[in-house]
């Protein structure tokens, strides 16, 4: 007998070079990684939204993907990214997607000159600059973003 709702989170990171201000059409690296920890604050917002309460949705206007440089282990009580360097990017056009396959998919692009430090932690929030409710936090090193690069991060949460 199964009971409960579970989720699986998949992160898809594409790293592109920039030449003459234009993003190369093919990434020089693609990395996929999984697992995260749901954060209390964001999970409480989900419950409020599910029951029709007033909260900021994780939608095209409100959702941001955040990246930081902390290696501090994730804990459910954390209220966002822990690093001294943090950056947040709004949704790419058409994101998030939802309503099919029990999935929500967020995608953001960090342009040339943005988030240029070691990428160690990741989150989805419902407001910019870490002022929202973080839904989840993942800690895993994915390298250092430097000048002349654009990194696109897609976060997919699948419920079952």
Textual characterization of the structure:
It is globular and about 50 Å long. A hairpin with a 2-residue loop joins strand 1 and strand 2. The chain has 160 residues and is mainly β. The protein has one domain. The chain is built from 1 helix and 11 strands. The model has no long low-confidence stretch (mean pLDDT 95). The strands form 2 sheets. Strands 1, 2, 3, 7, 8 and 11 form a 6-stranded antiparallel β-sheet that branches. Strands 4-10-9-5-6 form a 5-stranded antiparallel β-sheet.
Total E-strand runs: 11
Q: Give the integer mean of the pLDDT values.
A: 95
Structural class: mainly beta
Task: Outline the low-pLDDT stretches.
Answer: none
The H-and-E topology, N to C, reads as EEEEHEEEEEEE
Q: What fraction strand?
A: 35-45%
* Main sheet characteristics: 6 strands, antiparallel
Rg of Cα set: 16 Å
Separation of the first and last Cα atoms: 14 Å
The share of residues in helices is under 10%
Q: How many DSSP helices? A: 1
Shape: globular
* Structural domain tally: 1
Q: What is the secondary structure topology, with strand pairs?
A:
Elements: E1 7-19, E2 22-23, E3 29-34, E4 37-38, H1 40-50, E5 64-68, E6 86-90, E7 97-100, E8 103-110, E9 121-125, E10 136-139, E11 149-159
Antiparallel strand pairs: 1-2, 1-3, 1-11, 4-10, 5-6, 5-9, 7-8, 8-11, 9-10
Task: Describe the structure concisely.
With 160 residues, the protein is mainly β. It is 7% helix and 41% strand.
